[in-house]
Amino acid sequence: MTVLLAGVTLAGCAVGPDFHHPESPKATRYTETAMPRKTVAAGGISQHFDQGADIPQEWWKLFHSASLDRLVKNALAGSPSLDAARATLTQAQQDLAAEAGAEFPQANLNLQAQRQRFSPAIFGGTGAPSIFNLYNASVQVSYGIDLFGGLRRQIESQAAQVEYESFQYQGAIIALTANVVTSAVTEASLREQIVSTREIISSEEKQVRIVENQLKLGGVSRADLLVQKAQLAQARASLPPLEKALSQVRHQLAVYVGKTPQDASLPAIRLEELHLPENLPVSLPSELAKQRPDIRAAEALLHEASAQVGVATANLYPQITLSANVGSESIATSSMFSNNTNIWSIGGNLLQPIFNAGTLKAKKKSAVAAFDNAFAQYRATVLQSFQNVADVLRALESDAATLKADQDAEISSKDALDLVRKQFDLGAASYLSLLAADRQYQQSRIAVIEAKASRMADTAALFQALGGGWWHNSKDGKVSDD
Questions:
Q1: Which CATH number fits domain 105-145+318-351: 3.30.420.10, 3.40.50.1820, 3.30.428.10, 2.20.200.10?
Q2: Contact 258, 79 (CB under 8 A)
Q3: Which residues of 134-151 are buried (b: 16+ CB within 10 A; e: fewer)?
Q4: I want to staple 437 with a disulfide (CB 3.0 to 4.6 A). Which of 26, 189, 257, 417 is the partner?
């Protein structure tokens, strides 16, 4: 009774450290120097950075593409990687339920039937041995008193594992959506580059025919014709790698939606149907640690490591178990539950480690080292997250400037090409000048397409870097520390 009262009195105690959420970084901005409020205008669009604004859950809809929206939703519904993450989360939840069940008394029904041969000689008797049946029916109850909180710390550890898998699942969703969007942007860019390359090839073919006619008239040398044919061959050689890359990115999109390339029925994404988001919500730095699933997952691992320190500490103290057994034992089934056949027992067990060659203390030190490692990993994850956001913000600023410069170069190179072509037709410019102007224009067209795609891909990367809006799935629609 004394032991039971002590267990009840100390039931709220648990040795080891109580976990506290790490403090968020004190940074007031992501980048080394202050970011501008908006990017330079490129293609008539300037992206505005809305500091402190919330990230929408379905952020990809800001691209205003029905095809992209359908592609993302098909991926969320059919991705095998999400199915795997969801199953892992369910496994962790069931493991937690199993751990939590150990807090309650355990009861088991035991039924036995035996046939025995008994000899009185074992008690010093001289009678003849007898053979009889023995039947037993009993209920066994046991309860481990969690006097120092070892079991509670183990349950706490498993609960932290559930949190980890939950944030891993959210992270998988965000990574999948971002990968689908960037792959779709890449597909759109490749399609545009293929169209431009085919136009370039067509233009080069026309130019070859013109030079061939000029050669017949003696207006150019054969060397000029060979140079033009080489230019055409180079343009043709640039087409197959683009077509290969387009096929590969569509194959990857098929995997994202959980289909084979034959069965995926993917929409053809075009660059002109993707609208670049103009208002970009940028979360406050103090909120990033709450919003990034990878940071929250690292925090959950830190919590798990903290609880394991408590488990290792509790193992240094006594372990108390109470047990009871009540039932009936008889040599005949007809008298199994009569008053004369009732049996019972009650007992308690106390296990106190005395000597184990330092094993338990070493395990505690190992748990503390594991906690220190988890904390270092947490800090590294936070720092890398800030780096991700800073990189993307600077990339968006650079993307806009690059696109503007490329568009200006395209306009200038097109004007230059038109002028040189007129001069060439009038005999006022050499063929080499025309080739140089045409080559410059071709390169500027491709550069503009690539710059547009980079701007869109980095926009998607910003939403991913800021957490992707997963918290809108929570009950109150806000990020929680719990």
A1: 2.20.200.10
A2: yes
A3: ebbbbeeeebbbbbbbbb
A4: 417
Residues 6 or more apart in contact with residue 174 via CB below 8 angstroms: 293, 464, 467, 468, 470
- Let me know how long the chain is: 482
Residue boundaries of the structural domains of the chain: 16-36+50-103+154-186+273-317+358-473, 105-145+318-351
pLDDT in tens, the chain (482 residues): 444 444 444 445 788 889 999 988 889 999 999 999 999 999 889 999 999 999 999 999 999 999 999 999 999 999 999 999 999 999 999 999 998 888 888 888 888 888 888 787 777 777 788 888 888 888 898 888 888 888 899 999 999 999 999 999 999 999 999 999 999 999 999 999 999 899 888 888 888 888 888 888 887 888 888 988 998 999 899 999 999 999 999 999 999 999 999 999 999 999 999 999 999 999 999 999 999 999 999 999 999 999 999 999 988 898 888 888 887 877 777 777 777 778 888 888 888 888 888 898 999 999 999 999 999 999 999 999 999 999 999 999 999 999 999 999 999 999 999 999 899 888 888 776 877 788 788 889 899 999 999 999 999 999 999 999 999 875 433 455 55
